[in-house]
Please model this.
Amino acid sequence: MKPLRARLAVLLALLVAGLLLAACHGAAPLPFRLTNLTGHMPQLEFTLTNDEGKTVSAEDYRGKVVLLFFGYTHCPDVCPLTMAHLHVVMQKLGKRADDARILFVSVDPGRDTPAILHAYVNAFDSHAVGLTGKPRAVEALVKRYRSAFTREPASKDGNYEVSHSSAIYVFDRDGNPRVLFTPAGKQDDLVHDLQLLLGDGSPT
Amino acid sequence: MKHARLLALFATLSLAAVAHAGAADHVRATHAWIRVLPGALPAGGYVTLKNDSDQPVALTGASSKAYAQVMLHHSSTQGGVSRMTMVDALPVPAHGEATLAPAGYHLMLMQPNAPVTPGSTVRLLLQFSDGSSLPVDFIARPANALDDGAASAAHSGH
Model:
């Protein structure tokens, strides 16, 4: 039977070794405030057309923290409100926002041409990029993140209903999904988590 | 003398009644603004309505010379999904108010007849369930605005 003190010393040594190991491997989880997506969703992957008419893929945004948002330009209320909020978030990040990109993916690719998207995203924020493409390519991305979008056909009296996912998916510089922001979430929490992903691990 | 006064009173009252049926002087509008989007994209219109009368009224629609069509819509978010639906009427309770604000009730302004520039004003004629109507000047705000800008304008004025 070892004395208690010796046992504690061994325990402490193991603990320190464990912490060092975690630090070396960067395994210490970032203290996110939003819903943590780490390991729960696949890496960012797509091939679409950007608002300058160029074909782009997810690899083109590696090195940037990406905020992925599905919307459409003919949405007069919720989509522009979300984009206006993201503009405020970018302003709060200051210079660090240069390493972030808002990817506005149109779920209405038939109407949302690169030119329309270009004018649209630039009306909100200089870090925003509009993406459109073939309906199948957009659908694949929507499904990849289990997002949803439906537009019910107009009924006889002309009434219709549009529903779409209002969540924002945040990816780290390696394209890994990290947090999910919903309109019910606090804007400051999004700023906090983006600072973690943009910075050296500690919010400024 | 007394008779004349009564007549005058009656005249005023009936005039008021006529005015009631035409102009909605019992409803006051504040914080009226439009979020202008580029090109011919539909814009959202927002306003706070106060009903000073003893009777409830309802906003049933609006029209404008600046837009081909104006519709009353409602956005709601549940379980991470946003929905936008058309609505027939927005009640404004007696001595109460109703708010058209982002992510809730809004006027969808479609097909501008001419480009609307931020900073300009657009007149909308609001229509109510009692047959009255109210002309309101909406201030056009940039796409990334969050409100009518009155709060920040008051700030910078100091």
Observations:
- The radius of gyration of chain B is 18 Å.
